[in-house]
Write a structure and sequence with these properties.
With 295 residues, the protein is an alpha/beta fold. The chain has helices at residues 18-29, 65-73, 95-105, 156-162, 174-184, 210-225, 230-248, 253-265, 280-288, and strands at 5-13, 34-43, 55-59, 80-85, 89-90, 109-117, 142-143, 151-155, 188-198. Strands 1, 2, 3, 4, 5, 6, 7, 8 and 9 form a 9-stranded mixed β-sheet that branches. The longest helix has 19 residues, at 230-248. The radius of gyration is 19 Å and the shape is globular.
């Protein structure tokens, strides 16, 4: 029998959902056949009221979702990493053990997106939870080129080689960049629906700046990762798609346009970051696996 898998687990929270955070922690503590090194990162919050033995990291200000996750990674050990938002949880007590089994059996896979369900809802699960163009084939395993960030598993070396989450994004589209960077590091990213995690159905447009950051980060995604002229084509295509959507469902257009302009006006890199983009061979490899980075 192989040794139990070790996971460094980063749970991100602002301390505003204590009931949900307790549920997330309970789902981690009941996992079988794994050894977990868990840290709860408080984004502008001092984590309290946690089970014994859980490490904490209090960030003095809200640095955003991707930067908060990155901050936690340096404080945990493990062959694998698992990222869990405070309102998400694991639906089975062997999710992480089966995740480790999968990664050990597929050494070319660097990151896994589990299936996400809301067991308390009778509504159809959101298409945005299926990380592929068209939001279809919910039950089918496949290579994917983005992840739904609230619950993600990675090899530690894939995280290191990819550079981690793009902290400057604050939130929105960080799962696309990380997936692209994992592919560029030589790994595959897989959607594995047999691994079940939970999350309540919540409209992401509840945030006032949802449209602004979605547009800004879409432009930054292209500027940070895609060589010219592909980056321009990518943004042009997504701009056209978004404008068509506004014709069908108006709302938030002013904020979206402001974010689009900010994406071109402001630098998409933090001062310490390397500015290397994807290589054409990386883009070609993703295309061979089913993702042409045009739209």
């Amino acid at each position: 029998m192989s040794d139990p898998a070790t996971f460094g687990v980063v749970v991100l929270t602002q301390g505003k959902r204590p009931v949900e955070l307790a549920r997330a922690m309970d789902s981690l503590r009941t996992q079988r056949r794994v050894v977990l090194d868990i840290i709860v990162v408080g984004n502008a919050w001092e984590p309290t009221g946690l089970p014994p033995g859980i490490a904490t990291l209090a960030l003095p200000r809200n640095v955003g979702i991707p930067a908060g996750r990155n901050a936690g990674v340096a404080h945990v050990q493990g062959e694998f990493l698992f990222f869990l938002d405070d309102d998400a949880w694991l639906l089975d007590d062997d999710v992480l053990a089966r995740t480790a089994d999968y990664l050990r059996a597929h050494p070319d896979v660097g990151m896994i997106q589990p299936r996400i369900d809301d067991p308390s809802s009778d509504r159809e699960m959101p298409g945005r939870w299926i990380p592929r163009l068209g939001n279809t084939h919910r039950d089918d395993e496949a290579d994917v080129f983005s992840v739904v960030e609230m619950t993600v598993a990675m090899r530690r070396e894939a995280y290191d080689r990819s550079g981690g989450w793009p902290g400057i994004f604050f939130y929105a589209h960080e799962g696309i960049e990380l997936a692209w960077r994992v592919w560029a590091a030589g790994y595959r990213v897989r959607y594995v629906p047999s691994l079940r995690t939970g999350h309540p159905i919540i409209d992401p447009r509840r945030h006032d700046d949802y449209f602004f950051k979605n547009a800004r980060n879409r432009v930054w995604l292209a500027r940070r990762n895609l060589p010219w002229p592909l980056g321009w084509v990518y943004v042009a295509n997504w701009t056209g798609v978004q404008l068509i959507r506004w014709c069908q469902q108006p709302g938030g257009l002013r904020s979206w346009l402001a974010g689009w302009w900010e994406g071109w006006r402001a630098s998409p890199w933090e001062p310490h970051e390397s500015r290397h983009k994807l290589r054409w061979q990386d883009i070609a490899r993703m295309a061979r696996h089913g993702r042409l980075l045009v739209i």
